[in-house]
Amino acid sequence: MSRYNGPFGAAVPRHPDFHAGMMAQALLDTPFVQSAKPGSDSGPGPDKAGPGKPSGRRWPLLVKLAVTVVVLGALAAGADWAGIAARLSAADPWLFAAGFAVKALTLPFASQRWRAVGRAAGFSLTRWTAFRLQMASGFVGQILPGSVGADLLRGWFTWRLGHPAGPVMLALLVDRLMALLGVVLIGLVGLPHLAAVAPPAVAGTVLAGALVLAVAMGLLLLAGRIPRDRLPIPKRLRDGALGRTVWGAVAQLRAMAGNPAAWAALGHSIGVHLATITATILFARSVGLPLGWLDGLAIVPAAIVAAALPVSLGGWGVREGAMVAGFALLGFDADAALLVSLLIGLSIAVLSLPGGLFWLLLRNETAARTAVPTSAVPTSHGGPDAFPTDFSR
Is the pTM of this model over 0.70? Predict the structure, then answer.
């Protein structure tokens, strides 16, 4: 596994999905490699992989493609497509349009969440810039695993606009944490209804997951109060590069916990998820399923979490599987559940299409910035080669 300099200056392993995101961006934006300073030892760029690296970078993407194809194929094989087509042809156009419009609200909510976590991490974005970043990363993220690839691209675009790499990476982490916390809180609201309609093991698993997350976040915040040299772990681990990096990140996260902007990001996360749940209910009702609000609060959060996992392309397959399983708990037809899930996925894909224009504009804008001589770039924004191969700035 390759390594990179973490946001606090220490070398840490790269996540496999880092390569997937950088490979896709390298195919779309060739100036990526050219942004490094001549003679700098920043490691191989995305199009300069050493021997064996292309296959190493490609296989996680192939595995996720296989997961997407296998799950969708299994669902499609057992579906009554004539019945699905009949439901779709008889859909209420007004409810359908309302579902699409509500789903579109996730875009400004998500962009404002990114703006809020950026403010908490120490860099500022205008509302328009945050929206452009969200649209561009969402467009390219349609071919990347889960939401992880889109997150990496949003961070990369943000860095290319001149913001320091360390705070950008910290903002990416907090953005994911707030998204997860938001969906867990909504899931807890729907937990009583889920417990009434689902086997006890299902509701128990949801509650256990929420408790584990709460305990983990509490311990993380408490641990941040302990000086690193007093940690009850071996000195080799405590003073090593990885130990310094992790503890630096913990300290930063604890500091951000008291920042109102971070909690504003949580509000935006809840807005994103509530818009998705509302759109699901409207799509379901448009095709004749009497899905209620408590039903949506009970089953849709699990599908949101499944779609965010970096195990398939764009969340396809796992989202549909989770939605079909959730609808089955409520006694709804599997074919209708599959149709609703496909409508959610297609709405995301359609809404992301304008992001192609934003990506092209951002590509030109960031290329112009990297064309500026190194001496002309303010050191407060990191050097032109600071991201993604050197997160120490």
Answer: yes
